Amino acid sequence: MSSFEKYLKVKKDFIDRNLKRYFSKRGNYSEKLYEAMYYSISAGGKRLRPIIFLSVTEELAERSMIKKLLPAALSIEMIHTYSLIHDDLPSMDNDDLRRGKLTLHKKYDETVAILAGDALFSYAVEVFLQTGVDERYLVQGLRYLIKAAGMDGMVVGQFVDTKSQLFKQDEKTLKFIHTKKTAELIKVSFALPAILLGCDKKKIKEIEKLGLHSGLLFQIVDDILDYTTPSQILGKTAGKDEKQNKLTYVSFYGLEKAKKFAKEESKKALKLTKKIGFKKGNVESIIELFLTRIN
Amino acid sequence: MSSFEKYLKVKKDFIDRNLKRYFSKRGNYSEKLYEAMYYSISAGGKRLRPIIFLSVTEELAERSMIKKLLPAALSIEMIHTYSLIHDDLPSMDNDDLRRGKLTLHKKYDETVAILAGDALFSYAVEVFLQTGVDERYLVQGLRYLIKAAGMDGMVVGQFVDTKSQLFKQDEKTLKFIHTKKTAELIKVSFALPAILLGCDKKKIKEIEKLGLHSGLLFQIVDDILDYTTPSQILGKTAGKDEKQNKLTYVSFYGLEKAKKFAKEESKKALKLTKKIGFKKGNVESIIELFLTRIN
Question: Which parts of the chain are coiled coil (chains A, B) (predicted)?
Fold first, then answer.
């Protein structure tokens, strides 16, 4: 195991452990709802978003700040999970498998999946508000997070992706979907620590740019993996995008050109880590992982 | 038109006008999503929650504060509407009519309804954060609002109501559902202005109690109306609770006892308005309206 692989494992375990704390058993009436939420939260996610958040935090602040900013990192993972639960629903992407396990509406039913998603989103805000920074930065940070998660961010991305018949299937739409549906929340994972720590605007903008390139890189590789990897390894139904005639980098540009785009985005991101002055190497390793990951 | 009816109309128009401002046309990709959200937001709601919020604000602060607190009032209405959209879905209460118009998934489809609900919830948080008070109170107020809207509030209420087979159909469960599903957000409409204005804890607690009694009153009368009023006047499918074997005050206690409970809650609420020292009469008139409304 390389030292970076070890780093990822330590961070993932740390996040898993802390997420679990937030879903310890509750009162009689809400127990089953928490159980459903935790089923999805604990269903084998790689925790890339909170790991990004923590590795950027380590570049910008003292070690002691990790604990204070942790609720914000966990809330991003909760928002990500809520979006997966709703995206998997029959009236959306209609997926039975996610991360190698049954999706929530398959494990329970649609009622539970819709409400667990709603609950997870509101809980994400509750948990975010436990972040240990000055209220001024807390409000600024929440504005930033919610904008990326809402109807000018993640939700409109999913909307345009699912209701494809309403939109011209061109390059602009492809870029819009990928940016909104995936890249923006990854951007937030990079830039939110800088906002919560009160960094200057210029630095926030640069980290934001780094986040957007990394997010696009992530989604392009996702498109490539959906096309090239068997379901068993992918942990979700592979080739689904193709079957559903989804607009992806592979369907629009072909496999080779998609790979080229991914490489370009990774180069831009890596260049920015140098410009920003990140020194520990973990952020760079995450970007390299985004390019080379197999599932 | 009585002066209170005039008061309600002026307030409702003010809220409608300001809600409209928040849903003015957007970019190409999000236009249809905004359109769907606004369809539900503008579908004839009585705006009781923001009217409560504004009438309590008028009791506690200078007139100039109305404008500053308005985004919080609107965000409560958005959260209320988001919950109606999701509650009406086929896998939930499966309702075709709401406020005399087609429900959102009937007007569009389930995909649009789920996403418009999600978008409305995140937008509610965005709009709430525009409230013009000190960040300390803003954070405190949002914690309060989100707790009532989330999985220890409104969502768990809907969960227990919809998944009734999982829970003992007794008095405790009936009270739990009504408190969580309806009363808590009405409680917030009463108490949130006090929190945002930095009132002392004792006053907040009293207003909260007033809100809970009013909220229970509202839901008991809702049960009675569902049982006694034809769909055409009710603006939604009447007798639905009965058909779905829902636990209501009427199904559990019978009509006469339910009416008695409603009267008791209204008395408790009215007594509290005196204790708190509300002077303008509008809060009292709202409570009386809750008891006497026909739809």
Answer: none
